[in-house]
Amino acid sequence: MLVVGRLRKIVAYALAAISVGAIVWCVAVASPVTRSAPSPEPPSPSLLEVYGAQEHSPRTPPELTTEVTIADATDADLAVVPQGRLDERARQLKITVVHRLVLDRTDLLATLLRSEGPFPDDIQGFTDRRLGAVKADGGSAVLAPTSRLAPVLTTSGSRTTVRFTITMLRQVGNDALPQLDFVPPTEQGAVSAREITLIAPTWTVIRVERVTPDREQAGRLVFNAYTAPVSVRLAHESYGRPDAEQTDLFSWTPILSVFTAIALTVFLGRALGASWWQRTPNRELATGIALCVVALLLAMLLARMPYLGPVILFGAVPVLALRHARRIVPDRPPWTSKDALLVTGLGVLVASGMLFWAFVHGQVPPLTLAVGTVTAALAAAGSAVAFGADLGIAVLVARLAAVTAGVAVAALALALWVRALMSGGYFPPDSVRLVLALCWSLIPIAGIAVATRSWSRVAIVVAVLGSLLLLGWPTEWLDAGSWSVQPDQITPTTPPPLVFGQPLNEVTRGALGLLLLTFALLVLRLRRLGATPDAMANPAVVATVIVCLMVLYLTPRTDPDSTAIDLPLPSLAITSLVAWAAAIWLLSGPRPEIAEPSSRAEHRELIRNALHRRVLHGSEQELYRLSRGKLGSGELTMEDFERQRLDLDRALTLDPPHTETAFATSAGCTPWQNGLAAFVVSLLLSLPFALIYGWPDGPELTTWVFDARFMFTLPAFGFFYGYFYPRLRGTQPVTKALYVMSVALVTELSAYVPSLVDPDIGGFDKLQVVAIVVGQGALVFIGLGLYWEWRIMFAAGEPWARVRNVRSVRSLATPLVAVVIAAGTTAATSAAGQTVDRILKGDTATSQGGP
C-alpha cells in the first residue's frame, strides 16, 4: 500500500507538471496581437467628388474673405440660452462670422450649392473644410450651440458670391483675455489665401501670432491668412490689470487643512480603539497598507514604472486583505462544494471568452490553443483524481477534478491575457476592467467580513457588482474598443478626464474606491458595535461617528471663486471642523439620570407612568385654576380643596421618579436601529431640496459618490440624533431635534461664509440663501422630532394623540412652525435667481477635479 501511495503521488505531480507545461507552452508560442496604427482619416470628399464631376477649371480663381464681428450679446440673442447658464458677473459675447466666397458664375461648385448644397446636414463640415474654422478660446464658456444659416447666393455679371453666416454665443470673465483661432481650410482645392477682417469696437487686439496685419485701426484689424493657423488675443477696453500689491503670505487655508487632517487621523485612531492596535494581525495589516501607500506614491512619481501601481492596488492589497480576514474572522467560510462549482463555472465562462478572443485575433495558433487547453484541463483533473483517490468518495473526487480543470483553463486564459498586456500589443480594454474588477472585489469581500465578523454570499455578490461599477459605468462596458472589434479598426481614444488632478485611469478609480470602502466599513463597524445600548458610551463609537461627519463635510459644494476672499475662515476645512465641534457639544454637558429600558415591555411601562404623571400634573394645574373662582363663590370649601390637593400631591409623591425622562430613552431599541431609522426619515425629508442643489454628477461611480456627499450631510446629523438619542441635550424628542438643528445649521451655513460676505452679491440674494438653508434644516429636524415622538408612542403601544392632539393649540405649535418654514422655503426657492443657484450648487468641477 505504501508503494501504491507513493506511485499515486508521483503520477499526480507528473500530471500537474504536464498541466503547467501546457500553459507555459501556449504562453511561449503566443505572439502579440498587432494593432496597426490607424491611418489618418481622409478628408471628407468635396462636393465635386460626391457628384462625380469632371476636372473643371474656372476662368477666374475663387476669392474668399472672412469678416468676424465681436459685440455684446443683447437680450434677444440670449433668449436661446438655457436657464441657469448665464453668470451676471461675466460678459456675454456674440461672435458673428461671415464668409464670402466669390466664384465664377459658371463654377460647378456654385451650381451644386444652388441645387444640392450641404445645408443643413454637412454645413459645418463644408465650412470648416472649405472655408476654414473659426474657434473661440481663452477661457470662454459656450452659452448655446453655434448656429449656421443657409448659404446665400447672389449673382452679378460673371461672378457669384456665396455668403455663409455663423453665430457663436460665448461668456467670458471680466478679466479674461479671449482668443480667436483661425484654422486654415483642409480640403484640397480650397482657396489657399483669404482676407480676414476682425471688427471689435469695444476690444483691443493685444497679440497676433503667425501673421503680420495689413491694416490696424481702433476696433478693426485686417490681415491675409494662408496655410498656417492664426491666433488673435483680445482685451476689453475697460479692463486694466492693477499693479501687484504687497500681500501677506500668511494664509489660514493650509493651516486649517493640516489641522483637519491631523484631527481626522487622531479620531480614526480612536475609532479603531487601543485594543485594535494591540492585536498582531491588525498591526501587520497597518504596516502592509503603509508600505503599499508608499509604493503607490512612488509609482505616481516614477513614470518609468507604469505597472507598479496596478500590481500593488490590484494584487498586493487584495492579498493583504484576504490574509487579514482569514486571521480575524472567527468562523470558517460556509462555502460548499456547490459554491465552488458555481464559481468555477463562471470562471470557465469568462476564460472561454478570453480564449476565444485569443483564437479570433491569432494570438495563439488554433491547433496549439486547442491542444494546450485540453491538455491543461485533463492533466489538472487527472492530478486532482490522483491526489484525492484516498478520500474514498467518488462524488467529492469528481467535484475536485472539475474545479481543478476549471482553474487550469482560467489560469491559461489569464496567462495569455498577461502576455498580451506585457507584450505591448493590443488587448480588449474590457478585459482589463474585468480582471482588475475581480481582483479589486477581494478587498471589499474581506473588509465586509472583518467588519461584520462573518462571511456572506450576499456580500460577495454586492462586492463584485460594486467593483464592476467602480471600474466603469454600464455604458463604458462593451464599448467601441471591446472584444468584438478588430484591432486595426480601433480609433485612438481621447485622453481620460482629470479627477482631483490625476487622470481617471484604473489606478485612480481603485484608489478612490478604497476611500469610499473605508467610509463604508466604518459605517458597518457602527452597525456591529451598535447592537447593544452600551455603544453610546463607547469612545471608539463616538470617534467613528465624528470621523464620518467630518468626511462628509470635508469639501462642501461652494463657489470656488469665493475662496479667494481674504477670510480667517476658509471654506475648505471650516465646515469639517465645525461638524466636529457640533458633535462634541451635543454630547457634552450635564444630563439628567435616565432609566434606560432593557426591553419594549419596560419602555411601555415607563411611557405609561410618564403619561400618568402628566395627567396628575395637568389635574393639579386645573385644580388651582378652577378653585380660585369656586372658592370665592362658595361652590368649593377649603376642606374639599385641601383634600383634593393632598390626594394629588400624594399621588405625585408615590409616582416612580424620573418618569418624565421616559421620552428621552432609546425606547428599547439598539443605537443602530435608532440611527438607521432617523437617517432614513431625514433623507426622505431632505430629498426634495436636491432639486435646488442639483443632482450629483461625475464621469464615473467614485466621483459621482463624492459629489453626492451633500445629500447625506443633514441625514448624517439625523443618524447622530438617533444613534446617541439618550445622550443628547434635552428630555423631549422635539427639544433634542431643535438642539441638533441648531448645530447642523451652523455647520451648513459655515460653508457659505465667503459668499455671504462677498460685497458683489446683493443682500436679497444672501437672505434667500440663508432662508433656503434654514428652511431645509427646520423641515428636516422638526419633522424628525415629530416622527420620533410618534415612534416612541408607537413602540409603547400608545396613541400619539395622548401627547399631541388637535384640541391643544400649544401642542400644534411645533408642526405649525414646520409648515410655515416649509412654505417660506418654497417661496424663497421659487424666487431664487441665478446668483442664488450658483451659490447653492457651487461648481461641480470642484468635486470632480476639473472639467
TrEMBL record:
Give the keywords, sorted: Membrane, Transmembrane, Transmembrane helix
This protein's record includes keyword Lyase: no
Q: Where are the transmembrane segments?
A: 12-33, 249-273, 285-305, 341-360, 366-389, 396-420, 432-451, 458-475, 507-524, 536-555, 567-587, 676-696, 708-725, 737-757, 769-788, 809-832
Superkingdom, natural source: Bacteria
Name the record gives this protein = Uncharacterized protein
Task: Provide the taxonomic classification.
Answer: Bacteria, Bacillati, Actinomycetota, Actinomycetes, Streptosporangiales
